[in-house]
């Protein structure tokens, strides 16, 4: 189920979510990648899909990027889905360009600590505050992330300093990190030399 077929856009339309639920249900033991980026998924759609998502036993990639219809209730529900997924073998998670609220973002990060195989995180285009960065650092302390994308996250000098100090103090722990994207943020480029 690759790509993003037009007949599923947006998932907030009546019938589309039910159709997707049946597809997921029929492939719950074989589906490895689920791409719902730019799908128009909203809280109601995610609530309907939740029981089926929890039964995906082989899911390794999940993309929910660019789903502006998901509000704080929707992202809290997503954190609950992560908490209750039996399969903790997720390798890649894409949540770019969602404007996830701070409390939901922290709840999502709290759940990600339980995903030991996670290697790829894309949070581009979401606002990363100091509290969110602290929670993200807790994830980085527990999991050997290989690729972390934080471009266009409105990271300012103080938030960047938190990340920079963590990197400097935990270089050995971060030896698996091969890619860190921080483009298009708000921190001063001169801060790195300090």
Structure characterization notes:
It is built from six helices and six strands. The chain is an alpha/beta fold. It has a single domain, classed as Leucine-rich repeat, LRR (right-handed beta-alpha superhelix) (Alpha-Beta Horseshoe), CATH 3.80.10.10. It has a six-stranded parallel beta sheet with strand order 1-2-3-4-5-6, with no helix packed on it. α4 (102-112) runs parallel beside α5. The longest helix is centred in the middle third of the chain and has 13 residues, at 72-84. The termini are far apart. The model is unreliable at 1-9 (pLDDT under 50).
Kindly summarize this structure in a few lines.
This protein is α/β, with parallel strands linked by helices and 194 residues long. It is built from 6 helices and 6 strands; from the N terminus they run αβαβαβαβαβαβ.
Topology of helices and strands:
Blueprint: H1 16-26, E1 33-35, H2 43-53, E2 61-63, H3 72-84, E3 92-94, H4 102-112, E4 120-122, H5 130-142, E5 147-149, H6 157-169, E6 179-181
Parallel strand pairs: 1-2, 2-3, 3-4, 4-5, 5-6
Helix pairs in contact: 1-2, 2-3, 3-4, 4-5, 5-6
């Amino acid at each position: 189920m690759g790509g993003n077929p037009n007949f599923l856009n947006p998932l907030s339309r009546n019938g589309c979510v039910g159709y997707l639920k049946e597809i997921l249900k029929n492939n719950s033991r074989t589906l490895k990648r689920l791409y719902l980026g730019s799908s128009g998924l909203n809280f109601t759609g995610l609530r309907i899909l939740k029981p089926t998502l929890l039964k995906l036993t082989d899911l390794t990639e999940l993309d929910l990027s660019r789903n502006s219809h998901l509000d704080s209730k929707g992202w809290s529900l997503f954190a609950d889905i992560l908490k209750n997924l039996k399969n903790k073998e997720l390798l890649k998670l894409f949540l770019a360009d969602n404007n996830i609220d701070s409390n939901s973002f922290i709840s999502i990060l709290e759940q990600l600590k339980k995903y030991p195989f996670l290697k790829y995180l894309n949070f581009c285009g979401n606002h990363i505050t100091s509290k969110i960065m602290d929670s993200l650092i807790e994830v980085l302390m527990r999991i050997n992330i290989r690729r972390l994308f934080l471009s266009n996250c409105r990271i300012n000098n103080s938030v960047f300093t938190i990340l920079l100090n963590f990197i400097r103090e935990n270089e050995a722990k971060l030896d698996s990190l091969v890619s860190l994207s921080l483009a298009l943020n708000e921190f001063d480029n001169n801060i790195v030399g300090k």
